[in-house]
Amino acid sequence: MNNIISAHDLIDVVYTVDLNFATFVILLCIYLNSRSKLNRKLPSSQYLSATTILLLGQLFIESFTYFLCKIREPSLIPLTVFLYTFLYLVAPATSFIFMMFIQKYIDGEKAYSKTKTFMMAFPALVTLVLLGTNVFTGLCFRITTDNAYSRGPAFNIATLITVTYLIGIVIFLFIHRKKLTTKEYWIFNFFAIFPLLGGLAQTFFFGILVMWDASAFSIIVIYIYLQANVTKLDSLTKANSRSSFETYLDGLNKDSIFSLAFIDLDDFKSINDKFGHAEGDIALKNFSYIVQNTIDKHSTLARYGGDEFVICFNYTDLDKVKETLDRITEEVTAYNKKIRKPYEVKFSYGYDAFDNAKYITPTHLLKTIDTQMYEHKLNKKLVQYTKNHKSILMHKENMKN
């Protein structure tokens, strides 16, 4: 190698990539630590892992290419071209995969159609085409004969594609904001907003490397948030776990303003017995999804037992509680008609508002509405029995006639 990097250039590299290096190490440590805590079987976890791996690759290769271009050695040109091609291709791919993570996180692992997935991936495919011709056209970038990097005439197009994904993430989050807590909404937005700001800085001030540091910082925050909340959620239904709910309940006092509804699925055992536990799990997940998308964002759902759920409302207006339970009933009925399963998901409930003159503790309230729920379930069975009995009597009468 004829041209060794000068001391001045080496110092410039160190000052430029030091943030990349620090971010890379922190992100790698958090990623490795999270692998044992997050459910890696979930598509959302898989997309988040893929996003992280691509970010780690970008941070490392961006730093390495900056160093490489300081060495004015023609023999390094093929390697430099390959690495910059990787960076240009991975930029929109990272944003696309993170968008898929958000979609899976919000929509309860629901699959998108191939057509919709293709439309979402289309901008990244445009980048692939541009890069495929870049070796001959230099549209995205050029590497000079002394191994120096310069932007090509289509640089802004490649940048715009990545920006389109980032803006798309912001829009998608805004559309589905009611499905997220306020904290989740802003944490996920950071992934798009920070790189947008960093990308603008990097576009107008050539030579600084901050865009993917900003993305990595956002992913670090997401990992911290998910790890802090993973033990609070039921792994199957994504409702709060019983332990986290009981901890919350224990933290309430006699002056707290809230109502509780205790829910139990009707004839759930028969679903497991006739159609298998896998089908029972589907029923539980879908029921939880319906409830969480029907209650307001200030109310919470917890899975209390096998097919038992509790909703905690932050108000004591029982008419409002009943209206919400009626909406859940309507949504579940619509769900049954839509999926046309050989069974129907139905539920019984009991509910009341906490009143310290009526209930000694929140646990006392919970036991009371549990009893109400069983009374509701029994009344429904009696009504159904009466209908069936009348139907039999009418059938016998018709047979006599």
List the helices and strands and how they pair.
Layout (H helix, E strand, L loop, with lengths): L6 H28 L8 H26 L8 H30 L7 H24 L3 E3 L5 E3 L3 H21 L6 H23 L6 H20 L11 H9 L8 E7 L2 H8 L1 H18 L5 E4 L4 E6 L4 H22 L7 E7 L8 H39 L1
Helix pairs in contact: 1-2, 1-7, 2-3, 2-7, 3-4, 3-5, 4-5, 5-6, 6-7, 9-10, 10-11
Characterization of the model:
The chain is an alpha+beta fold. The protein has twelve helices and six strands. The chain has helices at residues 7-34, 43-68, 77-106, 114-137, 155-175, 182-204, 211-230, 242-250, 268-275, 277-294, 318-339, 362-400, and strands spanning 141-143, 149-151, 259-265, 300-303, 308-313, 347-353. The strands form two sheets. Strands 4-5-3-6 form a four-stranded antiparallel β-sheet, sandwiched between helices. Helix 2 packs antiparallel against helix 3 (77-106) and helix 4 (114-137) runs antiparallel to helix 5 (155-175). It starts with 6 loop residues before the first helix and ends with a helix. The mean pLDDT is 83.
What spatial form do the alpha-carbon principal axes imply? Answer: elongated
Q: Helical region count?
A: 12
- Percent of residues in helices comes to 55-70%
Strand elements, count:
6
Q: Please report the distance between the alpha carbons of the first and last residues.
A: 107 Å
Q: Unreliable runs, pLDDT <50, ≥5 residues?
A: none
Mean pLDDT: 83
Quick overview:
It is built from twelve helices and six strands.
